[in-house]
Amino acid sequence: MNTPFGLANLWLEGDAITRFVAIALLTSSIITWVILLSRYWAVRSLQKLKPELEQFWRATSYEQGLQTLTNHAVNPYYQIAKAASAASAHHQSQASNHRELLQTLNYSEWMARSLKNSIDGVTAGFQKGLTFLGSTGATAPFVGLFGTVWGIYHALIAISSSGSAQIDQVAGPIGEALIMTALGLAVAIPAVLGFNALNRANKLLGADLNRFGNDLLAYFVTGARMKSGE
């Protein structure tokens, strides 16, 4: 009589390909959850930095405003503000040496391009792991299905060899093969849901950074932050 089917029995009775598929799905699941948890904490930490922006704009000087922003190494607002300050200083330092070039690209255009490049560089970092999540969500069900088909194939070979197809002989191998489909779905569903959630969170963060960049552009060009509603 066959023992109850399960992951342990699937591993013990499976061949090299079955074990490879199981390891691939398990590895993908672990990486998926690592990405999801790390990105969740990263997004949560970035959201906690938003209240610092009011302190930044209330500072008496730009340098003092930079100091009000914490976690400089991972703070996107600080990185963009610092890059804007460096771009402004660079343009002003070159004003007397390259007048023809500066006439082609004036101060406003230079700052707009510099801020856009800085924001693009920061938001590119938000995309880490999304490619893996999208690929896993799209391929994991098919990998699990391949494991199922392979397991059923071997079960049918065993049945044909024994010349008997009694229910107790078929249930175990077929059930163990179907576990591979369940594993594929268990890997794919969190990956797809996580991909959509992180993609939405990244869009919201990107919108916040673009608003901050527009405020910085207004500040450097006009000397004042753009008021809400303008």
What do you see in this structure?
With 230 residues, the protein is mostly helical. Helix content is 81%, strand content 0%. The protein has 9 helices and no strands. The protein has helices at residues 7-13, 16-49, 52-58, 62-68, 76-93, 99-104, 107-125, 130-162, 167-222. Helix 2 runs antiparallel to helix 8, helix 2 runs parallel beside helix 9 and helix 5 runs antiparallel to helix 7 (107-125). The longest helix is centred in the last third of the chain and has 56 residues, at 167-222. The protein is rod-shaped and about 90 Å long. The N and C termini lie far apart (78 Å). Mean pLDDT is 82; it is low at 1-5.
Give the strand tally. Answer: 0
Shape: rod-shaped
- Sheet/helix structural class: mainly alpha
Poorly predicted spans = 1-5
Taken in chain order, the helices and strands follow as HHHHHHHHH
Q: Count the helices. How many?
A: 9
Q: Residue share in helices?
A: over 70%
Give the N-to-C terminal Cα separation: 78 Å
* Strand percent estimate: under 5%
Based on the model shown, name its key terms.
single chain, 230 residues, mainly alpha, 9 helices, rod-shaped, disordered N terminus
